[in-house]
């Protein structure tokens, strides 16, 4: 059973930066390397949306509206997924989740593709 735990959330002023981490457990390294990993967020009043996903070979795809500000990366040796967030805006306020699933994903930025989820990290951006 894969378990995910986010950290690094908090409060920041507009224009600031945060780096979220997502630590995985309950999985061995070979299996972890085979996983597609992703970040999602849920902002108040909106559905959960995909931010970015990173594949087993390190290739990444991101939601167009967040490209240039948010960057996904992974450190397989540490079993950690990262999300670097820069130039944060008040509308980025929400709960940020990491997720993963085994197997090929047709649409890696859709939440329905994922089986395992973290509990979320809160991010608050003040103006």
How would you explain this protein's 3D organization?
This protein is mainly beta. The chain is 4% helix and 48% strand. The chain contains one helix and eleven strands. It has one helix at 29-33, and strands at 3-7, 10-13, 18-25, 36-42, 49-54, 60-62, 70-75, 80-85, 94-101, 116-117, 121-126. Strands 2, 4, 5, 6, 9, 10 and 11 form a seven-stranded mixed beta sheet that branches. It has a four-stranded antiparallel beta sheet with strand order 1-3-8-7, with no helix packed on it. Strand 7 (70-75) and strand 8 form a beta hairpin. The longest helix has 5 residues, at 29-33. The protein is globular and about 45 Å long. The model has no long low-confidence stretch (mean pLDDT 95).
Task: Give the structure's gist in a few sentences.
This protein has 127 residues and is mainly beta. The chain is built from one helix and eleven strands.
Question: What are its keywords?
Answer:
127 residues, mainly beta, 7-stranded mixed sheet, 4-stranded antiparallel sheet, 4% helix
Radius of gyration: 14 Å
SSE string = EEEHEEEEEEEE
How much of the sequence is in beta strands? over 45%
Enumerate the spans where pLDDT stays under 50 for 5 or more consecutive residues: none
- Average pLDDT reading: 95
Distance between the termini: 40 Å
Shape: globular
**Helix- and strand-based class?**
mainly beta
Number of helices: 1
Range of helix content:
under 10%
Number of E-state strands: 11
User: What can be said about the biggest beta sheet?
Assistant: 7 strands, mixed
